[in-house]
Design brief:
The structure holds two protein chains of two kinds. By secondary structure, chain A is mainly α. Chain A is 78% helix and 0% strand. The two termini of chain A are 34 Å apart. Chain B is built from seven helices and ten strands. In chain B, α5 (175-192) links the parallel β7 and β8. By secondary structure, chain B is an alpha/beta fold. Chain B is globular, with a radius of gyration of 19 Å. In chain B, strands 6-7-8-3-9-10 form a six-stranded mixed beta sheet, sandwiched between helices. Chain B has a four-stranded antiparallel beta sheet with strand order 2-1-4-5, covered by helices on one side. The chains are: A mainly alpha, B alpha/beta. Chain A binds chain B through residues 1, 4-5, 7-9, 11-12, 14-17, 19, 168-171, 173-181, 184, 188-189, 192-193, 195, 267, 269, 272-273, and chain B through 58, 61, 63, 80-83, 85-87, 89, 91, 93, 95-99, 106-107, 110-111, 128-131, 135, 138-139, 141-147, 155, 159, 161, 177, 180-181, 183-184, 187-188, 191. The complex binds adenosine-5'-triphosphate and magnesium ion. Residues 19, 21, 27, 29, 47, 49-55, 90 of chain B line the site of adenosine-5'-triphosphate.
Chain lengths: 273, 268
């Protein structure tokens, strides 16, 4: 046998599949494009191009931001308010949606009973829930959180449900042949198999959550980044509208970074590719 | 009963299998398959693509049930997956979220026969034997095809099963790796003498490895022929140049040729 071992090591010169490591590099083209965007905006406003008469220039926006907003607690409270809603809605959606997706995917009777209801509720856009939600929940805050939750909830349920149903049978069979019991199969096979889909559900869910929160704040809120933007519009202060928009963009971007980080932690086997 | 004789002996009686699909006519895959897998022997199952080899293998391991017929392992009916039988699947079934080491120690730890230290020690020994010790902390996605196959062999062997079913394990490997794997695998088999069902569609591979070849054919498939391969063991690729090898090959080709002729005429 010894000879075979040696032979095996020496002869099969197969190496692990090589993968490029991507080093985080400054994206010059991207930076250039951003600069070009602000320049174009500036000159279009300066030249009073059609549609741009009422728009503030980037300089004005920056000026307003530095003088009136950067040190203004009300502005930062808008950030906090919106982030809170996003996080509550998002986390609640995951905490309730993941187990429900798992149940739907594994229990046939439960699936037959509950899935049709989900299929009916799922196509209803989260914003269509606004009136009912306001009537139902005692406070505006709760109704906004609820609508946010709705946005992410169905996405994660469907993603987990599909993932459970598409787990390769071989993955289960192998575990059973190696003597695993039901609990072990659940923890070591089923949960890790659906993690990639949970990750997809979280990415999509996070995007939807910001969409929904901003719209809901415009309709029903009395604070938050959506409200800030809307108040700017109502009071004809374009600089505020633009500050609101850029803030929302940044907030969404930061959330994506957070979710990406979480996903990498959840899937160590992916990071090595 | 002589317990020494009971080691992964399979008796297969009158298997019939249909796949039932929603909104479509059921596919009749297996018809009256009856055969015996002798303990300590390597039985090769051959057949054309799509003839139901994998289906038969799943039934032998208890992953799916036949519509009719029975599989007996050492006299006991096979009804569900069990840790005395294991399959190396056609497509790799290593769990991508576990490292090679975690994949290999899964069996011993699941059955909690052994502590983690003991399991790890045994796994390391096997991985070294399979030339994989440097890759124990890699994930399957980082391994080449041949390495995956070896990791799967280690994962199966650490559990000391009584029966091993290999479903076209070397399909998709390049010619060089394939030959090396065959050479390596036959040494492994001759050392362990683990009762094995080896599925392949390559005739040379079949004769090189087998004690007996079962040829599947017909639609729905049944076992149309059983060939004894009495080439001496231990074997090396030198047997491929012997008279006896050529005789067996000729006989097998006649059966296979007859089968494919029949399929052709059926298709016309
Ligand atoms: N789950 C399934 N549902 C319906 N039909 C199936 C299913 N699995 C396999 N079949 C059909 O049954 C037949 C036998 O399939 P099987 O995979 O057992 O063949 P095989 O000999 O292993 O083929 P291959 O050489 O491609 O591995 C094929 O015609 C296939 O299309
Ligand atoms: Mg197959």
């Amino acid at each position: 046998m010894k000879a075979a071992e040696e032979g095996m090591k020496a002869s099969i010169a197969d190496r692990p599949v090589k993968r490029n490591r991507r080093l985080p590099k400054m994206n010059w083209r991207g930076a250039l494009a951003v600069a070009a965007f602000f320049l174009a905006w500036h000159f279009l406003v300066l030249l009073k191009a059609p549609g741009f008469r009422e728009i503030a220039s980037p300089i004005e926006v920056l000026n307003t931001f530095l003088t009136q907003y950067i040190g203004n607690p009300k502005y930062w409270n808008s950030w906090v308010a919106s982030f809170k809603r996003v996080i509550y809605g998002f986390v609640l959606a995951q905490v309730l949606g993941i187990p429900l997706g798992l149940l739907l995917g594994t229990r046939e009777t439960f699936h037959n009973l509950v899935y049709p209801v989900i299929e009916i509720l799922r196509p209803i856009p989260p914003l269509a829930w606004v009136p009912i939600s306001i009537l139902f929940w005692p406070t505006t805050e709760l109704s906004i959180i609820f609508i946010t939750f709705i946005g992410a909830f169905f996405i994660i349920v469907i993603n987990v449900h599909d993932a459970v149903r598409n787990i390769k049978k071989e993955h289960y069979w192998l575990a059973l042949s190696l003597g695993a019991n039901g609990g072990q199969v659940f923890r070591r096979i089923m949960i890790p198999s659906v993690i990639p889909s949970i990750a997809v559900g979280m990415t999509l869910g996070m995007a939807v959550t910001w969409n929904v929160v901003i719209a809901a704040e415009m309709i029903a809120g009395d604070n938050g980044l959506g409200r800030l933007t809307w108040e700017g519009y109502v009071s004809h202060t374009v600089t505020v509208v633009i500050i609101g928009m850029i803030s929302i963009g940044l907030a969404g971007y930061l959330s994506t970074i957070g979710v990406d980080y979480l996903e990498k932690k959840m899937m160590p086997w992916r990071g090595t590719r | 009963m002589n317990t020494a004789a009971l080691k992964g002996e399979l008796t297969v009686k009158g298997l019939r299998k249909w796949y039932h699909r929603r909104d479509q006519a059921p596919v009749h895959v297996l018809e009256d398959c009856s055969f015996r897998i002798e303990p300590g022997k390597l039985t090769v199952v051959m057949g054309t693509s799509g003839c139901g080899k994998s289906t038969l293998a799943y039934i032998l391991c208890g992953y799916i049930g036949p519509d009719e017929g029975q599989v007996l392992m050492d006299g006991q009916p096979v009804k569900e997956p069990g840790s005395d039988r294991i399959m190396v699947f056609q497509e790799t079934a290593l769990w991508p979220w576990m490292t090679v080491m975690e994949n290999v120690v899964f069996g011993p730890l699941a059955k909690s026969r052994a502590g983690r230290d003991e399991a790890t020690r045994k796994a390391l020994e096997l991985l070294r034997k399979f030339g994989l010790s440097e890759f124990k902390d890699k994930y399957p996605g980082q391994l080449s095809g041949g390495m995956k196959r070896r990791a799967e062999l280690a994962q199966a062997l650490i559990n000391s099963p009584k029966l091993m079913v290999l479903d076209e394990p070397f399909r998709g490997l390049d010619v060089m790796t394939r030959e090396l794997m065959q050479e390596y695998y036959i040494k492994l088999f001759e050392e362990t003498r683990l009762t094995t069902v080896f599925i392949t569609s390559e005739l040379e591979e079949a004769i090189f490895l087998a004690d007996r070849i079962l040829i599947m054919g017909g639609t729905p498939s049944r076992i149309v022929r059983s060939l004894e391969v009495d080439l001496p063991r231990p074997r090396t690729f030198d047997v491929l140049a012997t008279e006896r090898y050529l005789e067996i090959k000729k006989e097998a080709l006649e059966v296979l040729y007859g089968e494919s002729m029949q399929q052709q005429t059926m298709a016309c």
